[in-house]
Design brief:
about 260 residues; 4-stranded parallel sheet; about 35% helix; elongated
């Protein structure tokens, strides 16, 4: 049996396909204070045999809600020296050209949480300047004092060579084991720095929320002895394992609508 659930603002929906091709569908009230409980409620209400579930796919609006409501984690950006303002400069275009009152959307990472590190790759991915670990250490010490929960790393031309991002991420985890770290090359190989920086920051911003949510959901499923393969819907219409979804939650931004 294959089971799919989706959490909506009012109802949590379920659709299941039995081995004989018959379809089961059910809905129950969404439980905002404890979303995963709504999933268990609709599973029980549907009367599906938990032991028969081979595949479980889940769609959720938790990520898009966290972004639109700006309820993500306090996030910092570590980037190449001289490029801390890339995400603020953006593309310099005006979506509403003749609106003299137009203002850019407020950023998810304020300037005081953007740290620079001396390092440099050229566009071919060749090392021009090695990573200055002292800069990384100072950044970590500073961000600890600022009580940051997640760090996004985006270096110049890391799409061509990700070794510096890997090196810095490893060093950060050695210095600060329980911090959430996102490298840009893990999220997108886009060659434009603004696009990569922004996407990486957003991934870090929702990473703690996604991890907590998915962990709670998995725990509830295990408590109910549902040992099926577990997946989360992605924005592209595909699905990813729970563990992978926790590392790249930005890919879940359209999970609910797509599901």
């Amino acid at each position: 049996m294959r089971v799919s659930t989706d959490i909506g603002g009012t109802f949590t929906d379920l659709v299941a396909i039995n081995k004989d091709g018959s379809i089961v569908f059910e809905k129950s009230n969404t439980t905002p204070a404890d979303f995963e409980q709504g999933v268990i409620d609709v599973l029980k209400k549907s009367s599906v045999d938990f032991k028969e579930i081979e595949s479980f796919v889940h769609g959720t609006t938790v990520i898009i809600n966290a972004l639109t409501e700006r309820k993500g984690a306090k996030t910092a950006l570590i980037t190449t020296k001289g490029f801390r303002d890339v995400i603020e400069i953006a593309r310099c275009n005006r979506p509403d050209l003749f609106n003299i009152y137009f203002k850019k959307p407020s950023l998810f990472v304020e300037r005081y949480l953007r740290c620079e590190v001396s390092e440099r790759m050229n566009y071919k991915g060749e090392v021009v300047e090695p990573v200055c670990k002292e800069d990384v250490k100072k950044a970590v010490e500073y961000l600890k004092k600022e009580d940051v929960k997640a760090i996004a790393i985006c270096f110049l031309h890391s799409y061509a060579n990700n070794s510096h991002e890997l090196e810095v991420a490893k060093y950060i985890r050695e210095l600060w084991g329980d911090i959430y770290v996102t490298c840009s090359f893990e999220i997108t190989r886009e060659w434009r720095e603004y696009e990569r920086s922004t996407t990486t920051v957003l991934n870090g911003y929702v990473m703690p929320i996604a991890a907590e949510y998915i962990d709670k959901l998995e725990q509830k499923l295990e408590e109910n002895k549902i040992s099926a393969l577990k997946y989360i819907m992605q924005s592209n219409g595909g699905s990813a394992s729970f563990n992978f979804a926790k590392k790249t939650p930005i890919n879940m931004i359209e999970s609910g609508p797509v599901a």
